[in-house]
């Protein structure tokens, strides 16, 4: 505490602890330009001045604040803030509103022709000014989601080391064994509540991209903030680098990761265990989202940790929930009940197994026997139709192996099973051929066709192909976006059945109520809520999901439903608020600039003409 005399008034000013001597004090006074504060008549009231001093004392000044992406406002720093923070001369003189800044970003962005360059441009904005980045992203979510997320994020990961500007997130490499907690402590934000982690082995449908998979956690977390309002400083992207089996990367002189083959077996499990334990120590109550691990590791890690810590696997559980939501919505157009359906999955990995198991849970919840529910789900893997007579099926597949003649291809399987829905989760593009879709149209008045693999190059078919080859009758959803198109004079809006409709809300719901676990019942609730949010007007347009422009509202509804489940299941440890929705809405991050001075009369910038 220091007492300062000014214009006959005594003021008490609290300075940072380390300013103990007079030199430091006068340096500090100079630093924050106190004299110029005091000269302003608006500050002659000592209480007012004190309030402003308190606001300012922990804020970096001068060029330092321009370099802090959480605090920087760029040209939107007001005249008064520029004065108080020592910014005069460091910025062009005219103060701009945020709207003008958004206009400038969009003008620049829309001049860029290539999506990867747009991705780089937006990343650099996020490095400079988080508030503006999120404002731009949220206000233009339909236009920009394909840039910060699938499909562009896939290309970004494939070229990660080549487009690199600045490191993001935390890398934990096999060499960090024994000191993982220390590595996590190096992260500058100390209150981390949400981690998305990958080991890069199965990045979208693109395979092993090693440490360059970092783009995925970064992209998912950007969407957490944009879609569910998780404050960006609460989240941390993590890549666990255990090596790669991607020969091209190993030979690339610019590759970022360890140039070794992947750790397997005990060494891998020990590193992952150390990571999960370290997260509990360093960031208590932090939610861990596993993303884009190989099939075998994804299932094992989920089984191992789902009852121990607050975690889920997005590719198994998140994708399952959005697929189920799309199925519920599709049934509005096809008629018939869930129990009457035959779902044929191409691909028996994380997404396929996750979706089939959630469909079974949904049916059992509706009173259908588990055995009958399993009969609704069929799989084709690399060896053909999954049937009882096949040897060496893993435990997951065995649960869905039916008494049926073998079929060696998807076409054969479609012909013999005659599914009502084909769901592509194979990570292989163009697998739903013209012939297959024509068969689906022969067997079904309205065939359900969901090519869910990502990015767009891995989609099992395009939206227009699905439409053409079924005489416009396919009920369609894909993992990566397809643009609206016109068929027979009618506008079609292909649904993006991507887990982005699910994970932000589920994560927010669990975080808001301090849930101890993430459960399948939460994903079931999320799927039902999501499908239920499609308005009658949207249904008239054939939509399966609400448009992305409503994603904040969607995520809030899902978060509320998920928290409700957490309270019902006795997992929530936060005292129950009187309204979950109001409570969660109040937690949602809105990207607006901080007012560093708190002055009513401060210049808010000039409006854009
Ligand atoms: O990231 C996406 O677009 C969906 C997803 O989790 C995946 O394909 O692995
Ligand atoms: Mg994924």
TrEMBL record:
The keyword Transcription regulation does not apply. Residues 126-306 form the Malic enzyme N-terminal domain. Keywords: Metal-binding, Oxidoreductase. GO terms for molecular function: malate dehydrogenase (decarboxylating) (NADP+) activity; metal ion binding; NAD binding. The active site is at residues 149, 220. Divalent metal cations. Prefers magnesium or manganese. CDD domains: NAD_bind_1_malic_enz. A divalent metal cation binds at residues 291-292, 315. Its EC number is 1.1.1.40. Its cofactor is Mn(2+); Mg(2+). Pfam families: malic, Malic_M. It is an enzyme of class 1 (oxidoreductase). One of its GO terms (biological process) is malate metabolic process. InterPro entries: Aminoacid_DH-like_N_sf (IPR046346), Malic_enzyme_CS (IPR015884), Malic_N_dom (IPR012301), Malic_N_dom_sf (IPR037062), Malic_NAD-bd (IPR012302), Malic_OxRdtase (IPR001891), NAD(P)-bd_dom_sf (IPR036291). (S)-malate binds at residues 202, 454, 498. Residues 316-567 form the Malic enzyme NAD-binding domain. NCBIfam families: PRK13529.1. PANTHER family: MALIC ENZYME-RELATED. Belongs to the malic enzymes family. This is Malic enzyme. It comes from Desulfatibacillum aliphaticivorans.
């Amino acid at each position: 505490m220091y007492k300062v005399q000014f214009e006959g008034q005594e003021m008490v000013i609290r300075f940072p602890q380390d300013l103990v001597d007079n030199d430091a004090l006068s340096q500090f006074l100079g630093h924050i330009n106190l004299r110029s504060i005091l000269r302003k008549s608006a500050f002659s009231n000592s209480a007012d001045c004190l309030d402003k001093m308190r606001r300012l004392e922990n804020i970096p000044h001068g060029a330092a604040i321009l370099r802090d992406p959480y605090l920087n406002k760029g040209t939107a720093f007001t005249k008064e803030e520029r004065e108080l923070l020592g910014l005069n001369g460091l910025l062009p003189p005219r103060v701009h509103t945020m709207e003008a800044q958004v206009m400038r970003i969009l003008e620049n962005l829309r001049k860029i022709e290539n999506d990867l360059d747009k991705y780089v441009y937006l990343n650099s904005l996020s490095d400079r000014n988080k508030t503006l980045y999120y404002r731009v992203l949220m206000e233009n979510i339909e236009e920009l989601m394909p840039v910060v997320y699938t499909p562009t994020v896939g290309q970004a990961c494939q070229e990660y080391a080549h487009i690199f500007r600045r490191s993001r997130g935390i890398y934990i490499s096999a060499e960090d064994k024994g000191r993982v907690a220390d590595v996590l402590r190096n992260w500058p934000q100390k209150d981390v509540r949400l981690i998305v982690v990958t080991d890069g082995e199965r990045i979208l449908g693109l395979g092993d991209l090693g440490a360059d998979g970092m783009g995925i956690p970064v992209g998912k977390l950007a969407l957490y903030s944009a879609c569910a309002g998780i404050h960006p400083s609460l989240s941390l992207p993590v890549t666990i680098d255990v090596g790669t089996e991607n020969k091209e990367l190993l030979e690339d002189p610019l590759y970022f990761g360890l140039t070794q083959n992947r750790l397997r077996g005990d060494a891998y499990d020990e590193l992952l265990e150390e990571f999960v334990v370290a997260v509990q120590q360093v960031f208590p109550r932090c939610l861990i989202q596993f993303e884009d691990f190989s099939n075998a590791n994804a299932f094992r890690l989920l089984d191992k940790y789902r009852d121990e810590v607050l975690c889920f696997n997005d590719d198994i559980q998140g994708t399952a929930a959005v697929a189920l939501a799309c199925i519920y919505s599709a049934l509005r157009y096809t008629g018939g009940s869930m129990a009457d359906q035959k779902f044929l999955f191409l691909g028996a990995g994380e997404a396929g197994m996750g979706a089939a198991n959630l469909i079974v849970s949904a049916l059992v919840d509706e009173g259908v026997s588990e055995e009958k529910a399993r009969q609704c789900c069929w799989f084709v893997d690399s060896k053909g139709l999954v049937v009882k007579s096949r040897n060496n099926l893993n435990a997951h597949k065995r649960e869905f192996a039916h008494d049926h003649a073998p079929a060696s291809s998807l076409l054969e399987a479609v012909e013999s099973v005659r599914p009502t829905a084909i769901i592509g989760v194979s990570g292989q593009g163009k697998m739903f051929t013209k012939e297959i879709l024509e068969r689906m149209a022969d067997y079904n008045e309205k065939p359900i066709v969901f090519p869910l693999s990502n990015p767009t190059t891995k989609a099992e078919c395009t939206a227009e192909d699905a439409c053409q080859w079924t005489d416009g009758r396919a009920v369609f959803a894909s993992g990566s976006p397809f643009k609206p198109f016109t068929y027979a004079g009618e506008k079609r809006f292909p649904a993006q059945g991507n887990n982005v409709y699910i994970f932000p809300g589920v994560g927010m719901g669990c975080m808001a109520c301090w849930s101890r676990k993430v459960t399948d019942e939460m994903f079931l609730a999320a799927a039902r809520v999501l499908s239920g949010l499609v308005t009658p007007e949207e249904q008239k347009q054939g939509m399966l999901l609400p448009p992305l422009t409503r994603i904040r509202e969607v995520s809030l509804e899902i978060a509320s439903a998920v928290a409700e489940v957490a309270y019902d299941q006795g997992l929530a440890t936060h005292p129950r608020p009187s309204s979950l929705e109001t409570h969660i809405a109040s937690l949602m991050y809105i990207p607006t600039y901080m007012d560093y001075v708190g002055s009513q009369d401060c210049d808010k910038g000039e409006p854009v003409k």
